[in-house]
Amino acid sequence: MYSRLWVLIVILLTGSVTMAQDNANIAGKWYGTFKLYYGDKYRMIIDLQKDGAGYKGTLQLPEMSDNDYFELETVVYRKDTLLLRIDALRFSFTGVWDPAVNQFRGITGFADDQSHSDLGRKEITAAEMYKRPQEPKPPFPYYTEQVKFNNIKDSVTLAGTFTRPAAQGKYPVVLMLSGSGPQDRNEEIAGHKLFLVLADYFARNGIASLRYDDRGFAGSTGDFDTSDIYDFSHDALTALKYLKTRKDVDPARIGLLGHSEGAVVAQITAANNPAVAFVISMGGVGVSGRELIDQQSAAKGKMAGKSDSLILADQARMKPYWDLLASDSDIAVVTPKAQEILRNIYRNSSEDVKKGQTEDELVRASVMRPETISLLRYKPLTYLKQIKCPFMAINGTADIQVDANANLKEIERALNENGNLLTTIRKFDGLNHLFQRCKTCEVNEYGELEQTIDPLVPAFMAHWILQLPPQEDR
Q: Using a CB cutoff of 8 Å and minimum separation of 24, what contacts does 416-424 make?
């Protein structure tokens, strides 16, 4: 990762900009965007005012907080270079004036992410940040209803959207389960609303759906940060019970569709559960959470051009840390031991590694929520062998988060060896973890791609659902 100083040096040495006048007035509002890990874009509004011989100002982040203004702790403007910092937010901007476009061109740092950013005078609207041609717009030619249902066991109220074809009738229904981290009902990632697009396609093709906000997020109550995958399964079971009360749902054709972590939740929910008519696993795992860590590190290493020997060396260095966290020991007991392992790894790392992060920052960033720990310790075989209903597992071959070959092979093996031959396994060539047709296929590309999902995927799923016989006919 390039340092901000090095980027500035490169710009200056290449002569791609000319010096601005020393007395140029930069007071007023400046607008820009920056990207985070998955390519999510966020607007920033910088408002600068003269302050003696220098400047002071505020930062506004509309996507993160509608009305909050954060005081800039550092504002340095010398000739053509602008430096802004708010250490409490771990925010920084370093840019060089480019008179060809009348903008500061540079780097924004936010938490652990850095991205190229421009600051200009033109206001940026939310609609201008992304192009999403597949996102449906009202009026919709089908029925939608905002609903709420209660997980009494955990005292959680879940808010969601039920969608079905416009005509009255009893429809097969898909309950959608979202991936890791707090997600809204549309599973919005980097401006892509995957579940909204799927619900739209299903409703236009004779299939109902229910999608809901994760507990503790958007319209749902509860505490996400203290919850794990088994708590999320309780929410899914509550949603299943709610669907059975609806007169426009065929109770013999209620299935689960889980994406990424949601596929894990679907496995847990469907195990020994006759109420589940089918399961669709999108980008789901068949190997243990511990094995998945090594698969992901290998995939990222290859994307970075590392040799196999270097990848294996990296895995060996981290093995004690991951093995300890993945053990069945009490997490409160193993956490300080794991952090000490991490400190030793840091101390023995190269200076280049240490430049990007301090030892304490690394340890703080390593603190895991119950959700992450439960995923790390998850063993799919335990639940897959208890699933008897039709099961579809699909993965993209360009997915660097969940390897298609290894995970589909294990899913199929676990189901078949325990007598479930109602399995459909499919690899989609050239698709990433979001089932987009990708170019670099790295995770930070998700937001750059206009496609939300390759059209072949919802068509394949809908056809499969519609040809399934009701439960009583099996």
A: 417/385, 418/384, 418/385, 418/386, 419/388, 420/387, 420/388, 420/389, 420/391, 422/388, 422/389, 422/390, 422/391, 422/474, 423/390, 423/391, 423/392, 423/393, 424/390, 424/391, 424/392, 424/393, 424/464
CA angle 86–91–94, rounded 5-degree value: 100
Which among 380, 383, 432, 376 is positioned nearest to 410, based on CA atoms? Answer: 380
Domain count, the chain: 3
Give the C-alpha separation, 125 to 33, whole Å.
10
113 and 67 in a common domain: yes
Are residue 319 and residue 277 in the same domain, yes or no? no
| Angle ∠(31,452,464) on CA atoms, nearest 5 | 165
Q: Are 199 and 227 contacting, i.e. CB atoms less than 8 angstroms apart?
A: no
Decide the pairing of beta strands 249-259 and 171-177. Answer: parallel
Instruction: For residue range 209-238, list pLDDT tens digits in order.
Output: 999 999 999 999 999 999 999 999 999 999
Distance CA 22, CA 24 (A): 6
User: Model pTM?
Assistant: 0.88
Task: Name the E strands within 25-73.
Answer: 28-35, 41-51, 54-60, 70-71
Q: What is the pLDDT of residue 37?
A: 85
Neighbours of 114 (CB within 10 A): 21
Q: Which residues of the chain have pLDDT under 50?
A: 1-21
Can you give the pLDDT at residue 473? 62
Are residues 346 and 362 in contact, defined by beta-carbon separation less than 8 angstroms?
Answer: yes
- CB of 329 closer than 8 Å to CB of 350: no
Judge if 266 and 387 occupy the same domain. yes
The radius of gyration of the chain's CA atoms, rounded to the nearest angstrom, is 25
Structure-block tokens of residue 259: 């994406």
Range of the domain at 77: 4-128
